[in-house]
Specification:
CATH class of the largest domain: Alpha Beta
CATH architecture of the largest domain: 3-Layer(aba) Sandwich
Number of helices: 8
Largest sheet: 5 strands, mixed
Shape: globular
Structural class: alpha/beta
Distance between the termini: 47 Å
Helix content: 25-40%
CATH topology of the largest domain: Rossmann fold
Number of domains: 2
Length: 216
């Protein structure tokens, strides 16, 4: 280890993204959390929503995973994308998920400026490594909406995102399968709206992949 890296590791030791315990630089998360991660069973995979052909999610959105994702999104923990990327690529490989183009559910400009990064784009970039390609921006958020996490009613969530997204640079998606990446899927309203737009732009199939989901 270089001297610079050594001192950086002393000042900013690697911590488990799920429990916060200090861990060795060579591992991504601690062994205790590895035993307790709330994986969604295979029998609940994949799900489908309006305009979504398949929806795959790795974890239940609860407990340590929920806490971790909230830190990722709201507490400047963009580096967590590397850990989530590990799980996403593993899932892609094990389930042989194929696609032609990888994209993501984008933030509004207002929220991007406030946060400084788009958490779903970082995840899409991590997924793209599994296909030896790059993610492509196919959607833009044209209307800043109330955070979906603050809305419990499914019908209100659906109305909240209606008309909030628009297609961009979609000339090459005609007849192709798009892998749409997001951090969390709850009622499916957001990914359904995004998938509707992609299909209207010519996509043949839309497959959604998220780190976590609310599964009832």
């Amino acid at each position: 280890m270089k001297i610079y890296d050594f001192f950086i590791s002393l000042l900013y030791p690697r911590k488990c993204p799920f429990c916060g315990k200090i861990i060795d630089e060579a591992i991504l998360y601690c062994s205790d959390c590895a035993k307790k991660l709330p994986y969604i069973p295979a029998e609940f995979q994949p799900r489908s929503f309006d305009f979504v052909d398949e929806c795959h999610s790795i974890f239940y959105y609860r407990d340590m995973v929920q806490d971790s994702i909230l830190r990722y999104k709201f507490h400047d923990c963009a580096g967590f994308c590397k850990i989530y990327g590990h799980f996403l690529r593993k899932y892609i490989d094990e389930n042989r998920i194929s696609c032609d183009i990888i994209s993501w559910v984008p933030l509004s400009r207002k929220r991007y400026r406030k946060r400084g990064y788009d958490q779903a784009r970082l995840l899409a970039d991590e997924c793209a490594v599994a296909y030896s390609t790059k993610s492509v921006s196919l959607l833009r958020k044209i209307r800043d909406t109330k955070a979906q996490s603050g809305i419990s009613d499914a019908s209100v969530r659906k109305e909240n995102v209606k008309g909030a997204y628009a297609a961009q640079d979609c000339a090459d998606i005609c007849g192709k399968t798009v892998l749409l990446v997001d951090d969390v899927v709850t009622t499916g309203s957001t990914v359904s709206e995004c998938s509707r737009i992609l299909k209207n732009a010519g996509a043949a199939r839309v497959v959604v992949l998220s780190v976590a989901a609310v599964v009832k």
